[in-house]
Design brief:
Blueprint (H helix, E strand, L loop, with lengths): L1 E5 L9 H15 L3 E5 L9 E5 L5 H10 L5 E4 L2 H10 L1 H10 L2 E4 L16 E3 L18 E6 L10 H7 L7 E6 L5 H13 L3 E3 L5 H9 L3 E4 L8 H9 L3 E4 L2 H7 L6 E2 L4 H13 L1 H15 L4 H19 L1
Parallel strand pairs: 1-2, 1-3, 3-4, 4-5, 5-6, 7-8, 7-10, 8-9, 10-11, 11-12
Helix pairs in contact: 2-4, 3-4, 5-10, 8-11
Length: 321
């Protein structure tokens, strides 16, 4: 098939949407399809559209379906679609969902915010990550805790840095953050935090290989988001065997499971500080996190994601047949 894959523009090529779209393009090509990746739809003929983000890709989705009404469309629901725009600007989001033949979510709890009439179209495809080629070697100089993600409001990006301030004087915890600041204000806040907090460093936007090296030397990783669709960095950490401390939001629970022991309430700096101290001082807790992460790692293996896409495309072929 000839497939058009629409992914909205972002401030960097390493946004979650862009990374997911690039990986899916590789998967679809591996399955034998021709794939064109674009940020908008120009009307060119295609057998199938895969669109990332219901709200941002709404115009492209509408144009494709008005031009090729009988051709299938797969829509990947982003975290901002289902946890933000469904509340703040639902009309274009719901219209995109109605036009889609299949809906793809990235976490197991996304169904809770999908309208009941559309749930039969929903399929969860966990984002995969390639297991690291080298053994993980946490730093011996400090208890390194990584924060991996762009600096923007929904990520609550400085929560780990603020929690580290509450640790005892003798603590060896150090927060190492990577990701681009989406606004000058976030860059200024990160620089100010570095100046005031000796336990925090922000390294800005880095390459995928640098992210993997950071995970390899991390004792743990923090995902402090206010909402998440299903962060690929959780997949990366899980297959690398890195314990995760995560805000208790559906996008995280839908990947790590309801019984995962490393959650803290959204925005609760003191609760996160207690978990950081446990990472440093409680080997039994670290072992429990490691075992829990290992149990989830199989969800994020590349063959599983490839098989899910093969199944999804086959279901559309059966429907057309």
């Amino acid at each position: 098939m000839k497939i058009i894959l629409i992914t909205p523009k972002g401030p960097t090529s390493r946004t979650g949407n862009k990374v997911a779209a690039s990986r899916w393009a590789r998967i679809l090509r591996r399955l034998g399809h021709r794939v064109h990746v674009a940020s908008d739809y120009d009307g060119a003929p295609a057998d199938l559209m895969v669109a990332v983000h219901a709200w941002r890709s709404a115009d492209a989705i509408r144009r494709f379906k008005s031009t090729w009404s009988g051709r299938p469309l797969i829509l990947q629901l982003s975290g901002t679609d289902i946890y933000d725009y469904m509340k703040t600007d639902p009309v274009p989001t719901l219209r995109s969902m109605e036009l889609a033949d299949r809906l793809v979510a990235l976490n197991d709890l996304a169904w809770r915010v999908v309208p009941k009439r559309l749930r039969a179209r929903l399929l969860v495809i966990h984002q995969s990550a390639t297991p690291p080629s080298r053994l993980r070697r946490p730093s011996s100089r400090a208890v390194t805790v990584s924060v991996i993600g762009h600096l923007r409001d929904v990520k609550d990006p400085l929560r780990a840095a603020e929690a580290a301030r509450l640790l005892p004087v003798e603590s060896r915890v150090r927060i190492e953050q990577v990701g681009q600041a989406y606004t000058p204000q976030w860059a200024a806040l990160a620089h100010a935090e570095m100046a005031a907090n000796p336990r925090y460093v922000w390294r800005g936007d880095v390459t995928a290989s640098e992210v993997r090296r950071l995970l390899a030397r991390s004792h743990a990783m923090v995902v402090s988001s206010v909402s998440e669709g299903g962060a690929n960095v959780i997949s990366e950490a899980a297959v690398a065997g890195v314990p995760i401390l995560a805000s208790r939001v559906d996008g995280n629970v839908g990947l790590l499971g309801a019984d995962y022991p490393g959650y803290f309430p959204i925005g609760d700096t003191r609760a996160l500080a207690r978990l950081l101290r446990q990472i440093e001082c409680d080997s039994c807790f670290v072992q429990r996190l490691g075992e829990a992460v290992s149990r989830r790692a199989s969800l994020f293996q590349p063959p599983r994601e490839i098989a899910a896409w093969r199944h999804l495309l086959a279901s559309l072929r059966r429907r057309r047949g």
